[in-house]
Amino acid sequence: MAKTFFIVNPIAGGGKAGELVPIIRQAMAEVEIQYDLAITRGPGDAVDIAKRGLGAGYEVLVAVGGDGTINEVARGILEADRGRLGILPSGTGNDLARSLGIDLDPIKAIDTIVNGTVRYIDVGFVNDRIFLNIASIGFDAETVMNTEKIKKRIRSNIAYVIGVIITLLGFKDKRVELDIDGIKIDGKITLIAIGNGRYYGGGLKILPMAIPDDGYFYICIVNRIARLKLLFLFPTIFKGRHIEIRKYVEVYRAKTVRVKTIDEAYLNIDGEVYDIEGETLFTMNDKKLPIITN
User: Fold this and answer.
1) What is the CATH number of domain 129-285?
2) Number of DSSP helices (H) and strands (E) in the chain, helices first
3) Does domain 4-115 have CATH number 3.40.50.10330?
């Protein structure tokens, strides 16, 4: 059986991930698999721990945390060019797990890690940063920033809804120039989401058409829209019905996307937000990431 190494981000999900340590130990004591466990101490630590685990002969590296923790463990696997990724979802959103059909129940997720099959999923790049699920610019990126502030007081998915409302009050549409596999778009948008996964924001089905292993990005653009109309559009995203509203929403499939932001903007990569300026390049990497799913 594959040697398994759990990498735990203790603060993910408001401390939920750290609380899973005894559950992991109990579950793994019942199977004949050699395993170990390490706790991260800060941002970027999971990348180095993953590489050390691979160097010590572990074959399956399990990210215990949210999408940010998964991103870091995946970076370690890709940079080392060996190993397989397991996911024990325990963040606030757990959107990549949703996209891949991994159960959010920890016992069921551990069973998938032990008995699941390997699926090779696409790896996207934003400039030199990898992402596995969704990257976005515009309204949703600013919503994530506001939500992170709210989560310091409220530890539940309602924090995202409050973040949406706060963002609605102050958001300004972004002027962008886009090149989507040669298709040129120039104008003001409310948001653009690019990715391999279907969900973000704790269950919003922003890219319902996405396939994580077909070698393509899927793109959703919400064009400039009045705030009140956006408020009515927002609930349709939970079931992916927003893509039917073609007056405001456009969808594409592509391998390369260039986004030039004219206005000040932020970039959300798998739940982590960065300032951006000028051109941002989204490219599909040739490498695939081996990940254990059902």
Assistant:
1) 2.60.200.40
2) 8, 13
3) yes
